[in-house]
Design a protein that fits this description.
Residues 51-372 form the DUF3616 domain. InterPro entries: DUF3616 (IPR022060). This protein has one domain (25-380): Tachylectin-2, Chain A. It contains two helices and 28 strands. The protein has helices spanning 15-18, 193-199; strands at 29-34, 52-58, 61-66, 71-77, 83-91, 108-114, 117-122, 127-128, 142-143, 151-160, 163-166, 169-170, 179-180, 182-183, 218-225, 228-238, 241-251, 257-259, 269-273, 279-286, 289-295, 305-309, 318-319, 325-329, 338-345, 354-360, 367-368, 373-380. β12 (169-170) and β13 (179-180) form a beta hairpin. The radius of gyration is 20 Å and the shape is globular. The model is unreliable at 1-7 and 18-22 (pLDDT under 50).
Length: 387
């Protein structure tokens, strides 16, 4: 009987490694993000700088979220490229009917920019509460926050000079189709369209009602091109492979987003990705290259890497190690700096593309409570297809 071949980190050896190029390189720079105090913000109860969970970038504008809120934050990179401020706070509950209201936690873990929209995705996960006392029965408390079932998009308004805002609707003057906010229809029930759909899946279904960080369903990566939406799962990891859920979205007559039926009659497709047994913490398109940030499915310390799929194909169901290229190993610090979000800064006249990396449980060196600051790392990033 054939035995399963163990996945080895060496299987992902790239041309850089074989040539002796160090993938565990240090960041070339840091970018300080400055936020307004949470007391000055609407529907924000905790400091944003403590818990940046996702990133997206266009021009000088960096969008980010804190997974404890139901808002999106935008900061602008200054002329020196060392800091980003002029913080603006966008309350999603003012644009969408959220079942838990505008202040209910959304656990936003995915942001993506495509075709003039900012796409936003909640984790869709259940969570196990931490025990209050020493009673082991407290571990039985598993909760559902209904705002976590959000997937939607908001139009981007380009104000020039790299400044981009979120708006409810745009009606172009040149006759091109207008754009407006839209989301997948949701209610307070944990049977959201996406959870309900995946509950019936032979591979994902058994894990849908398990809590996040326990190999339960947990969406943490989002990458969008046109109407194609890729959801990267931190969990479950199935057979040592991370999973991507692919959907082709349409806008219904009632103004909701809905995945269309594919050739097999399903409204989604699965892609299995060999990340050395880890799950997906974030994803980002760089031209035609799909970047994937790996990370532990459970709540433990682990080495994290950024992988690249040069030509992601909807027709390919399984991506073994040889189909990926490991382009970066992130520095590991015990107890802090768990990489959680990535975004690509576009190339400029004097600099190539760069990768921003934001961290959960940030190290004390990254944060300044008095200045409401957190520093994200900046890594050099070759263009798609470059070695």
């Amino acid at each position: 009987m054939a035995k399963n071949r163990p996945t080895r980190l060496a299987d992902h050896a790239s041309a850089e490694e074989k040539a002796g190029f160090a993938l565990d390189r240090k960041p070339v720079d840091k970018l300080d993000l400055f936020f307004a105090h949470h007391d000055e913000l609407t529907n924000v109860g905790d400091p944003i700088w403590q818990d940046v969970s996702s990133l997206a970038a266009v021009g000088r504008s960096i969008f980010c979220t804190c997974d404890e809120t139901s808002t999106v934050e935008r900061v602008l990179i200054d002329e020196h490229g060392k800091a980003a401020g002029e913080h603006r706070n966008f309350v999603l509950g003012q644009s969408f009917q959220l079942p838990d209201g505008p202040s209910g936690e959304m656990d936003i873990e995915g942001l993506a920019i495509s075709d003039g929209y900012l796409w936003i995705c909640g984790s869709h996960s259940l969570k196990r509460d931490d025990p209050d006392d020493d009673d082991i029965d407290d571990f039985e408390d598993v909760d559902w926050d209904s705002n976590r079932g959000f997937l939607g998009r908001v139009p981007l308004l380009d104000r020039g000079d790299g400044v981009v805002d979120l708006v409810d609707a745009i009606e172009p003057l040149d006759g091109t189709p207008g754009r407006t906010v839209a989301m997948v229809e949701m209610t307070a029930s944990k049977k959201t369209p996406i959870r309900k759909m995946l509950k019936k899946d032979r591979l994902i279904g058994p894990f849908v009602d398990l809590p996040c960080k326990e190999n339960g369903l947990d969406i943490e990566g989002l990458a969008v091109k046109g109407d194609t939406v890729l959801l990267g799962l931190r969990g479950p990891v199935v057979g040592g492979f991370a999973m991507i859920v692919r959907m082709e979205m349409k806008l219904t007559d009632k103004g909701f987003l809905k995945p269309v039926k594919l050739k097999d009659g399903k409204r989604y497709a699965l892609h299995a990705i060999d990340l050395n047994g880890q799950g997906i913490r974030d994803m980002n398109w760089q031209e035609d290259r799909l970047l994937i940030l790996s990370g532990a499915t459970t709540d433990l310390e682990a080495m994290q890497s950024v992988f690249a799929i040069e030509n992601f194909s909807a027709d390919r169901q399984v991506y073994h190690s040889g189909a990926l290229r490991r382009i970066l190993d992130l520095p590991a610090i015990r107890g802090s700096d768990h990489a959680e979000g990535i975004a690509v800064l576009e190339a400029t006249e004097d600099r190539g593309p760069r990768l921003l990396v934001a961290y959960d449980s940030p190290h004390d060196d990254r944060v300044d409570a008095e200045k409401q600051r957190i520093a994200v790392d900046v890594f050099e990033l070759a263009g798609s297809g470059e070695k």
